[in-house]
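Today's session is about reading a structure prediction critically. Students often jump straight to the picture, but the first step is always the sequence itself: look for stretches that repeat, for charged clusters, for runs of hydrophobic residues. Only then move on to the predicted structure, which in these notes is written as discrete structure tokens rather than atom positions. Here is the chain we will use throughout the hour.
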Amino acid sequence: GERLDLSRVLLVFTSDHGVAPIPETLSRRGIGGRVGGSLREAVEAGLARRFGHGNWIKAWLPTQVYLNRELARARKVDPARLEMEASALALSHPGVARDYTRRSLEGGPPGEQDPWFIRFARGFDPERSGDLHVLLKPFWLFSSERGTTHGSPYEYDTHVPLILSGPGIRPGVYHQPAQIVDLAPTLAALLGVEFPTPREGRVLTEVLTGLPFQENQ
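Below is the predicted structure for this chain, in token form.
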């Protein structure tokens, strides 16, 4: 059979996410924990006390809460007031660091620098996202089951390898800030193809010795 010429092959190794430590291991030192169903129960009970008995939460995803806007209209409850009350109830849970309401995310970044807000805002879709977006404290998980998972914006979940090897790549370890979204524009530059705009990320020029795939076209 034919042999592959590795001098014309660019290898890339990375990952889509990291992983959180198991809470039971850290909790022995008083760090982290599991939210389980306690957070939802606390918010539901609090909304019932404030606005009367009813199904105030339509859906609860790990980080997003969808409030019952139809019930709010029927009870003549201002949606902004419902959001703020749910937010205050969520923040009272010992595992919650902060949360963002739909109105705060639609309004853009707050005056103060908040790196977590920016990350939530980037994933917010006005037509599909929830009304409340919850950020747990470090080393806390939504899951009540054993084991661990991922999904937070903390270092242990977001720090992943980005390794490139092959023609046009300068060997070395680089300490400049880099993101996984930088990979696509870097590959586009090496291949000499257009990258759609607007785009996220930058070309990792510090790792390039040249553009061999363009030169040999």
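Discussion point for the tutorial: Strands lie at 11-14, 33-34, 57-60, 64-67, 96-101, 132-136, 140-141, 162-165.
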